[in-house]
Model the fold of this input.
Amino acid sequence: MSNDIQAWAQVRETSIEIAQAIFEVANNNEAIAQKLWEEGNDRALEIAFTKTSDDVLFWGEDRVERKDV
Done:
């Protein structure tokens, strides 16, 4: 599944940490993951920043900073 999530993230120009977190929140359901990606999800952002020491991640074209989460 990790290669699938990586490809999913690349197509959406989204940081892998955010993609992994979205799938975690969606219980690995791709339809739910897509909806979360389209609508945004605060819990996914919280989880994503626990997966990295980076202070900036990308959710599509949106730049998300750790300090804003």
User: Anything to note?
Assistant: Helices lie at 2-11, 16-25, 30-39, 42-50. Residues 2-68 form one domain. Strands lie at 56-59, 62-65.
